[in-house]
Every structure is written in structure tokens, then in C-alpha cells.
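[job 0412] stage=complex_fold ligand=coenzyme A status=START
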Amino acid sequence: MIRSEILGTGSYLPEKVVTNKDWEKMVDTSDEWITTRTGIKERHFAAENEATSDLVVEASKKAIEDAKINKEDIDLIIVGTISSDNAYPSTANWVQKKLGIKPIPSFDISAACSGFLYGLIVADSFIKIGAAKKVLVAGAEIMTRIMNWEDRNTCVLFGDGAGAVVLGPTDEDKGILSTYWGADGNLGDLLKQPAGGSAMPATHETVDKKLHAVYMEGNKVFKHAVLRMQEAAIKALELANLTGNDVDLYIPHQANIRIIEATIERAKIPLEKTFINIDKIANISAATIPIGLDQAKKTGRIKPGDNVLMSAFGGGLTWAGIVVRF
Ligand SMILES: CC(C)(COP(=O)(O)OP(=O)(O)OC[C@H]1O[C@@H](n2cnc3c(N)ncnc32)[C@H](O)[C@@H]1OP(=O)(O)O)[C@@H](O)C(=O)NCCC(=O)NCCS
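[job 0412] stage=complex_fold status=DONE, emitting C-alpha cells
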């Protein structure tokens, strides 16, 4: 039986760090409010000359090196993002160009914070049917480019960065053991970037009203986030015939520490087996999980044979859970 295994990981965080104390000087907020409500202490901001594809390129170079493959072996590129370089071409197209890889299929996935896991699920399917042999899957965002700096409810929650993996086939007892995903467009209005698309094209008014920025009804999203994160984690485990006890490491999407705590309680996963970096990177939407995966791997928190659970939730609304054995 062919499964997909993660051959290598990489991540990139822009140099500039903005702390909660820095935020106190920019909007009416406090380190205390942000820390107690979310668990966030600091986040990275991309430099002015960096586009989302540049972040992917940095993360991808490391993932390709870690996978010990030649970049020419890659036959598909998938990037999860909601802050692409342009409306089109896709960020993945720019990545193919900037990495200097031969013309191969490359496309973006728009599933907000679930974008990377959606990308992994798609890549896994291509590998299982033999349609791809080495897939570069990335999650990347420059969320600070799509923020309304006057909306203190939302702007303090996000940061910038990218993570990437190389996926390839294996016939050993490892790799992606289960995938679970879902979406509910009925709740799309709770978290969206209202203007700039065909439903509301850009006008002076949309710019003045800051409708090109992330709009989120945080309270309502929170309730769905808890339920769907729990569902995604538990279903992914069930589909892999595992329980919370079998999890060696859980890498949750990092939107709010309280969502993570509620999820691990319900899925019966101990805190010490949960990877938490929200304090350092905040919410980087689709980039969050691949960055966590890379940091966990490079700091020795993932060993051969480990069962790693990942689950995410985001705008759409979308959600996904995956179990991978290393
Ligand atoms: C956004 C979020 C952190 C807000 O936390 P909360 O506990 O729900 O806070 P509330 O929205 O109830 O706001 C409580 C108070 O803090 C205030 N507040 C909001 N942002 C603030 C800030 N940055 N600094 C200080 N006060 C703030 C509010 O105005 C409100 O004041 P009021 O009671 O006087 O009206 C939380 O709802 C959340 O994490 N939501 C989900 C995010 C998510 O999962 N996104 C999807 C994945 S990307």
C-alpha cells in the first residue's frame, strides 16, 4: 500500500519581531489583554520588499535540502495562502519561477488557516494514485498586509511567515495515516476579506472603509473554532485507529491558546505532548502548522515512529485533521 511520507521540512520567519509592548504604542491595547485572551506575546512582520512567494522560497529551500532531493525532482507545487502575491498568477507559480524549477503544475489553495492541511490532503491523493512523486506543499502568509490597523480585536492576533514540506511515496508503515476535512460556507461571513473580488470590486470607497482587510467576528468564530478543532482532531485519530494516548505530538493551529486547551481536553491529549508556539509567532493562518512541524522536527520533538496529529480551523469556515507517522 502506497502512502505519502514527509521527506523534509523547512520554515522561514521574517527578521522583524513586534511584541505586545510595541502594539501598546500603536493601538489601544495592552500586553496583559493580548496575553490573557490569546497567549500571544510576539509575532514576525515581513519586510517591505518581501512578498509571500519570497517567504515560501526561503522555507522551501530548507525543506528541499532537508529532504535530500534535487529541486528538479519536484513535480507539483501547492501553496496554501490567503495573502498571495497577486490575485493571479498563483503564489505557487511565482515560487516555481523563483526556485528555478522546470515548468510543472503549481497552484494555490484558498482555505485560510486550514490551507496547509488542505494542501497536504490534495498532495497525498496525487501521490497515492501515482500522479506525483515529489510534492512541495507550503503554507505562507503576510497577514500584516491585509490588516485593518484600527481594528484592535483582530490586528494584534496575526503575524507573517512560511513553512514547507516535501512529500513523497513510501510503502513502509509510516506517512500520512488519516485525513479528515470539511467546510461550511454558510458561516463564510464571519471571517472574510470583503472587497477586492468580483462580489465587491475595489473602489475608493472600499479602500476608505478598509474593506480590503481581514474582517472577523472573533466571538462567534471562537465557538465554531473550538468545536471544529475538536472534531478534526478526534476524527483524524479515529480514522487512523488511534486515540489521544497514541499521540506522540499534537501540532494544533495556533489561533488562541484557549482553543488549543479546549481541544486537548476533549481529545485527551496531554499538554506536554502539544506543540505550542503561539507566544512567539501568533496566528500565521496557513503557515502556522508547517512552521510548527519544522520547529518540532528540528528541536528533536519528533522521532522516527512518532504519531503526529495536526489539526486546523479557519475562514470558510474550513477545518482539517491529519495523522502522520514519521
Ligand atoms: C478575538 C478574540 C481573541 C477575542 O477574545 P474574547 O475573549 O472573545 O474578547 P471579546 O471579543 O469578548 O472582547 C472583550 C473585550 O475586550 C476588548 N478588546 C478587544 N480587542 C482588544 C485589544 N486588542 N486590546 C484590549 N481590549 C480589546 C473588546 O472591545 C471587549 O470590550 P467590551 O467588553 O468593553 O466590549 C477571540 O474571540 C478569538 O480568539 N476568536 C477566534 C479567533 C480565531 O479562531 N480565528 C479563526 C482562525 S484564524
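The chain has a mean pLDDT of 97.
[job 0412] exit 0
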